[in-house]
Every structure is written in C-alpha cells, then in structure tokens.
Input
Amino acid sequence: MKNMNRRKFLSVSAIVGAGAIMAPHAAVATVSAKNENGAIPTRVLGKTGLKIPILSMGVMRADNPAVVRAAYNAGLTHFDTAHGYQNGKNEEMLGEFFKDKDRSTFTIATKVKANLRSPNFETEYEEQLNTSLRRLQMDYVDIFYTHAIDSLGELNDPRLLKMLQKFKSEGKVKYVGFSTHANKPTQIDEAIKTGVYDVCLISYNFKLNILSEVDAAIQRGVDAGMGFVAMKSMTGGVEDAAGKRKVDGAVCLRWVWQNKNITTTIPGFTSFDLLDNCLEAAHRPDLDANDKKYLAGLIDKNETLYCQNCEKCVSDCSKHLPIPTIMRAYMYNYGYKQPTLSKDTLMELALGINACSGCNSCTVKCPSGFKVADKIAAIMPVVDVPYSFLT
Output
C-alpha cells in the first residue's frame, strides 16, 4: 500500500481485525519443569524409529525462548519450525536455545516450500536448506519437510525427489517428509508409491468430514512404514473471528491421540498458559464422557475457522481462486493472531487486494457454511499492510 501512514493503517486494521493485527500479550503463568503425573507417553515415528512424546511443540508462532525452555524442561523433545517462519527468526531462536544442548535430547523438523516453477529450483532449494541449518546452528535436521504440498505433481516431481534423496545421502537431513492440508488420502497413497517419504505432517482434527477416508489412508501409510505427525489439531483455536469462544485445546489433542497411528501433535502454543493446557492433555490423554459431549457440540453446531480443503469452492468460483489457501490465511490471522504468517501465505498467491473485483455476487457454496466472500474481503487487506505494522 503506497504512502501507508498511521491513519490508513488504522482503517485497514479495523477491517482485518484490530485484535488480530496486534501481537498477543504473553501469559505470565508458570510451568513446572517436573512432570508431576509421570512421563509423557511416547510413540515411534514409523520406520524412522524416532521415539517421540505424543505432545511436541509447533514453534511457528512462538518468539519467546522461555516458552521453548519450559516445553523442553517439561519433557517435550520434538520441535517443529520452518524456513519461512518469522522471516527466519524462528529458526534463529531455536538455534540459540539448542546450541548448548545435548543433540541426543531433542529432534528438530524444518520445512521449505519447493518452488518447482523456478528454472534454478535445485540450487535455490539447497541454499534454503543450508540457510536453515546455519540459522539453527546444526549440521543436520532430524526431519526435513517439503512444505505445503498442494498437488500430486509437486509430490512426485522427479527433481524434488532427487533433491530429497541427495540431502539424506549428504547427512544434512536424517528423514524426509511432506506437509499437506489438501487431498490427503491421494497424497498419502502417492507418497507411498514414491518410496522416498518417511514422514507426513498432516492437518488432522475432529472436524474432518472425510475422516474415515483419511484414517484409511493413514493406515496404508503406516503399513508402508510412514510416520504421521498431526497439525491444525485445534481447528484454528477459536470458534469465531472475534476470538470470544476459544476451542478447548486439551480436548482436541486427546481426540487426535485416540488414533494410535498418529505419533505426535505439534500445537503452536505461544504462552505458558497454553503450554499448561497442552501438558494437562498429555498427562490425561484419554477422552472422557465430558470431552465427547463437548466435541459433539462443536461438530454439530459451530463452524470454527477450519477449512476442509475440499476444493469445491475452486470450481464454484468464477475466477477459480485458491480459496482454501486464502481461508488458511484467514485462520492464521483471526484464529492464531499471526498476521505476518497470514500475509506470507497470501503473498505467495500473488493475487492482490482486489482478488474478487468484477464479481457482482459470490457463486461459491461452501459445504462447511463459510461465508467465503466475506472472509476474503476481511483478510485480503493484510496484503497491503507493511510488515513493520504486523508485529
């Protein structure tokens, strides 16, 4: 946005959501470094053999190393970041925290988006991994994911598969995987066929409307030796854009752990209070009657902010916009209160603020009941907000 000043910024933030545009305040509660109820249960991550607690840390939104320290001291050993999170600051924070720690006491996963359209893909992809390693101050990462796979053409691209195998042979990564929000059953089946992928980082929660198909695909992956890590387990964290009705994260996590094929989850807690809530779940991982009643109410009545990525909207849309990705950006901003990540997601689409211009009325009929046009109008202004305002 040209000539952005404070007055213009305030007018945009009113649209995007003032509460979402500002950084959340860190909670001041403390977390005990000792597990009073015993150790967190662990599971083995497929053929990798990695033994990981069922609760891990998605570091994506965290910018306070004290929260990472509290998680580590509480028994969490697996930490998930990405090349692009916080413009690299996320990896740098982890590198500083872990530089003096025994490397056998933790595992690190990072992710890089594969720009397969670039004629210099191989060189650029390797340099991104090398940059991540420098930031992390590590010789290798335990898991390296190809980030946010959207299509089978990306997943099985020979150039990508060759690079992943190269990284493993050079010892820069121990295991390779892919992260996905869409077309999960078909992507899992294709990943099995390649014989390359060790791990799948998958959006998995109680709101999935194709749960039986996803579970069946996960079972096929497990049978083939693939390990599964769950993300987006809390369906956006809130039930409404205003954030007045927060989802009970502990119940959401317990639901995920009922599937023994899911090795661990990576909730993105950013405060001690949220970590406490996750630890409470890890020390009582079984659903009780009250939990089941709570989840049933959410399934039956509430939209939440989680997009199913069914992609029906894409065919409904006269412009065939990548609406599922836009809806994910909406969730990042209004649910996660992470406007920078929301902007990063939208910028990759290169749509511009007026993506819906020229449409007299929206033709999209979302099966989940999303008011798609309203959500697009509410999130696209973040594209033109300078990063310096998105703190």
